[in-house]
Amino acid sequence: QVQLVESGGGLVQPGGSLTLSCTGSGVDFSSSALGWYRQVPGKERELVARIRGSGSTTYEDSVKGRFSISRDNAKNTMYLQMHNLKPEDTAVYYCRLEYHDVWGQGTLVTVSS
After folding, report:
1. How far apart are the C-alpha atoms of 29 and 19, rounded to whole Å?
2. Residue 103 pLDDT level (bands cut at 50, 70, 90)
């Protein structure tokens, strides 16, 4: 059974940094397409960043230059490094195994002073 577990969320001040982790079991991250998504109440879940099996990456326009997605195959873990955080980044962040539609439980990121 495939399972994804996120961690690393919390409270951070505007301009601060935070790194989220997503660890998988029952799946090999080295050849998988993986994504980070976020959702705010009243809005649809949106794609934040994606990393493909080849290692190529894609970012939503509002996070370009501030966020970085990466993968550690030995640890079967994906990361989202977030810098210069803004209040509008506040959301529940989810990791997803693309194509197979497997989601983690989500981790809350709150950006506030």
Report:
1. 18
2. very high
